[in-house]
Amino acid sequence: MTNELTPKFNPTEVEEGRYEKWLEADVFKPSGNPDAEPYSIVIPPPNVTGKLHLGHAWDTTLQDIIIRQKRMQGFDTLWLPGMDHAGIATQAKVAARLAEDGILPQDLGREKFLDKVWEWKDEYATTIKEQWGKMGISVDYSRERFTLDEGLSQAVRKVFVQLYNKGWIYRGEKLINWDPKAMTALSDIEVIHKEIDGAFYHITYQIEGSDEFVEIATTRPETFLGDTAVIVNEKDERYKHLVGKNVILPIINRVIPILTDDHADMEKETGVVKITPAHDPNDFEVAMRHDLPMINMMNNDGTINENGGKYEGLDRFEARKQIVADLKELGQLVDIKPVRHEVGHSERTGVVVEPRLSTQWFVKMDELAKNAIANQTTEDAVEFYPPRFNDTFMQWMENVHDWVISRQLWWGHQIPAWYNEAGEMYVGEEAPEGEGWTQDADVLDTWFSSALWPFSTMGWPDENSADFKRYFPTSTLVTGYDIIFFWVSRMIFQSLEFTGKSPFHNVLIHGLIRDEEGRKMSKSLGNGIDPMDVIEKYGADALRWFLSNGSAPGQDVRFSYDKMDAAWNFINKIWNVSRYILMNAEDVSADAVSSALTKVANKTAGNVTDRWILTRLNDTARRVTEQMDKFEFGVAGHILYNFIWDEFANWYLELTKEVMFGEDEAEKDITRAVLLHVLDQVLRLLHPIMPFFTEEIFEKLPNTSGSIVVAEYPKVRPEFNDDKASEGVAMLIELITAVRNIRAEVNTPLSKAVPMLIKSEHADFLNAVSPYISRFTNPSELTITKDLAVPEQAMSAVITGAELYLPLAGLINIEEEIARLEKELAKWKKELDLVNKKLGNERFVANAKAEVVQKEKDKLADYQEKFDTVKARIAELKEN
After folding, report:
1. What average pLDDT score do residues 758-771 get?
2. By C-alpha distance, which of 86, 195, 62 is closest to 513?
3. Do 271 and 236 contact (CB within 8 A), yes or no?
4. With bands split at pLDDT 50, 70 and 90, how would you rate the model's confidence at 2?
5. In this predicted structure, what is the pLDDT of residue 321?
6. In sequence order, which residues have a C-beta less than 8 Å from that of residue 323 and are 6 or more positions away?
7. Concatenated DSSP letters of 609-654
8. What would the DSSP string read from start to end of 236-289?
9. Pairing state of beta strands 184-186 and 273-275?
10. Residue from 136, 144, 146, 145 nearest 23 by CA
11. Cis peptide before 807 (omega within 30 of 0)
């Protein structure tokens, strides 16, 4: 049969070639329907330094879920892909590759080195796109962008020049974070503070012209040769007599003044603080207040420069060792106290960052930050999910420092500033006319161009660009909480400044993926997981299911192969269900399905289980859509899982066998149609999360055409709602489950027929569905009535709307049965207490929706009835 699924689900077979077919069919491009509401996402661009990691797989999975659902719902969707040049990381990778052949970047020169980097970019961009394909992400490749594309470079130059002309970009000498390995400046947020073991080195400085000494404590003795003052607090009685005098720096015997400043803490260490303005941010501020000279001790590579005297050329940490040894020999190292302290490390290279005085380009952040903060109180505010991350964003913007944007690299957007021999500087979007101009050798921080990504990719600065007018601002950004400062905040303030609008309406924040022990994945721990390896074993659909169901927004998730096994088992369950349905409904036409569903809705055909499953399908579609709209993918997945596995597969499919193995062909036709319809709708609900196997099954359904990618997303169909059928089948399922539990307790297998008595006000309904009761409980004799004499020796159960008795004389122990019922009584007592407590809460009753309060009241009545019935049954057994 052409529509037959292979007996064994194999994710590799299902996924192979599928992505290429989607691309050929152009199903990922915007619909172009002018009447449809636009919905756009720009992908957080991965950098071109290597393979995708699980964090990026998480980003792309969640975005793909959103865009696929919106596409199916009829939105005019655009998901624009692209990549980031990642200046520091990419240049370091290419330099390392060249080093393997003994080649330094300087050997090649700027232009030839950049040729090598472009070769790297092409290689790894191809790899990333192949990995995107394996993930199944539905992007429009006709609009793909790269941060060094000419269009985006034009936008970068325009932004730089406009900010410069407003006085918001400036060039100056300030203390910055310096990466000695990459040999470039870093912004504050590119510095990761880690706790490491260090020491306080206590050194004595001699007072000039006396035999008196002061003691200072430092964790970085290698910089003390750059000291330009020592300070004490003016309130410190110990040192008042020394203020205005000088101290002599050991080893080099340079004289520096003793000053007063509030930065000196009388309670901390000795109360005397050495000031090294070129290598400490606090010391820099002190130097600015007192107009002190600033002496830089470091070369670009972290070695000591000519200001270091005999230590010139030594690595900073080797210099530390020798300086400590020399101070000890002079008798001026009086103590070394171990300390555990935080030290800044480069986010890119991992080396210890060096605070260093340097001439760099900066963005003044006061006005940009003020605008971003004010915008969050307007209708154009960016909505964060979860909302607590709005506070994270606001706190950072309120405390932001000027942003150092120049990098001493070759790979990136070269700063649009030129200099001539006359000492003049020109800043413009294009080079100045005439000869004798040299462009600034530095490039811009990668995040400077990435901050423009939502609008530069849409054609800005051409505000008449069709995509910019149609799809900007974008709808939703999905990213990890670790780059709110790096990227999200910068996109917001740059977009507000240059377009007058927020760059996106929503920001969905997810957490980090950790290993099974809760540790952050890292190379040093060797606990990283390659998503491509996971796909190779389990398939992309299983990985996507895990990533979407792993946690709530903003929460970390632990990767687990047990969870991957569970995801694969779930897919396999649906696969087998689909095979069963296709084998039994291969020739059912779309018209036959439509006609059958109309009859079921009108109750002119079909049975109560058909009406029940359609009601449950409606409820599932409604709840899943509500949760997806709130980006609660884990909750949506839980709802889908329960419906598919429990209600559809475990119950409805089994209940239909009463019909499928029967003689009524007309009833079989109805059941086949309902089975096909529910399967069709289940596949559509699942498709955004698990696209590959849902398309595989969808195209084999006998009454579908085209790709599921553009199929209509399920909607609630009110004509299918049947509360009575829903309540009735729920009672039937509860009854069957109770019988199975009782049989298990007394070790009576289902193959052994036993008598069964049911007392219920719904006896008419239960008699109508008695064939199902008989099939699934195997009674030797079945009695269903509104009133009956309760047998003395019987196992019993109380379910919603009915009492169940299994006379099992000789098989039960009365004492054990009473003990079992007393446990059940305690359970209902606990439920009653919980509901009573909730209804006794005046705030809950006053503030909750009326339907929510009524639901709790209905629970109370149900639990009370069960409690009373079990209590009465215990009393009967004790009397007998």
Report:
1. 93
2. 62
3. yes
4. very low
5. 95
6. 221, 222, 224, 225, 251, 311
7. HHHHHHHHHHHHHHHHHHHHHTT-HHHHHHHHHIIIIIIIIIIIHH
8. -TTTGGGTT-EEE-TTT--EEEEEE-TTS-TTSTTS-EEE-GGG-HHHHHHHHH
9. unpaired
10. 136
11. no
pLDDT digits (tens, 9 = 90+) for 155-209: 999 999 999 999 999 999 888 888 999 888 888 878 888 888 999 999 999 999 9
Cis peptide before 473 (omega within 30 of 0): yes
What's the confidence (pLDDT) of residue 185?
A: 87
Tokens of 809: 């004389």
At 376, is the secondary structure helix, strand, or coil?
coil
Q: What region does 747 belong to: left with phi over 0, alpha with psi -120 to 50, or beta? A: left
Helix (H) or strand (E) holding 421: none
Query: Percent of the chain at pLDDT above 90?
Result: 67
Contact by Cβ (8 Å): 540, 692: yes
Tokens 């190379």, located at residue: 523
What does the pLDDT read at residue 524? 66
201/324 Cα distance (integer angstroms): 8
Other Cβ atoms closer than 10 A to 790? 15
The three-state secondary structure class of 69 is helix
How many whole angstroms from its chain centre is CA 388? Answer: 15
Instruction: Report d(CA 490, CA 400) in Å as an integer.
Output: 11
With CA atoms as reference, report the closest residue to 346 among 53, 54, 704, 88. 88
3-state secondary structure of 700: coil
Amino acid identity of residue 419, one-letter, is Y
Q: Please state, in angstroms and rounded to a whole number, the distance separating the CA atoms of residues 124 and 560.
A: 28
Which parts of 650-722 fold into alpha helices (H)? 653-660, 665-686, 691-698
Q: Do 592 and 427 meet the contact criterion of CB atoms below 8 Å apart?
A: no
Query: Cβ of 380: how many Cβ atoms within 10 Å?
Result: 13
Handedness of CA 855, 857, 862, 866 (dihedral sign): positive
Q: What integer best gives the mean pLDDT of the chain? A: 91
In the structure encoding, which two tokens stand for residue 474, read together? 């974008």
Please name the amino acid found at residue 567.
A
User: Count of H helices and E strands in the chain?
Assistant: 30, 29
Provide CB contacts within 8 A for 187, sequence distance 6+: 177, 403, 404, 405, 445, 447
Q: What is the dihedral of CA 232, 237, 240, 241, to 10 degrees?
A: -130
Q: How far is CA 280 from CA 161, 275, 285, 546, in A?
A: 31, 8, 9, 46
**What is the side-by-side strand order in the sheet with 438-439?**
425-427, 417-419, 438-439
Cα separations in angstroms, 670 against 603, 700, 770, 829: 12, 20, 20, 43
Element (H, E) at 496: helix 489-499
The pTM of the full predicted model, rounded to 2 decimals, is 0.83
d(CA 838, CA 160): 59
| CB-CB neighbours of 568 under 10 Å | 20
191 token code pair: 């510095």
Count CB atoms within 10 A of the CB of residue 765.
21
Sequence-separated (6 or more) residues with CB below 8 Å from residue 872: none
Give rounded-to-5 percent helix, strand, coil for the chain: 50, 20, 30
Quote the CA–CA distance of 646 and 682 in Å, as a whole number.
13
Query: Please, which residues bridge with residue 169 across strands?
Result: 363
**Residue closest to 177 by CA, chosen among 352, 335, 321:** 352
Question: Which residue from 271, 255, 252 is spatially nearest to 263, judged by alpha carbons?
Answer: 271
Q: Note the pLDDT tens digit of each residue in 796-816.
A: 888 888 999 988 765 666 777
Q: In what order do the strands lie in the sheet with 169-179?
A: 184-186, 169-179, 354-363, 403-404
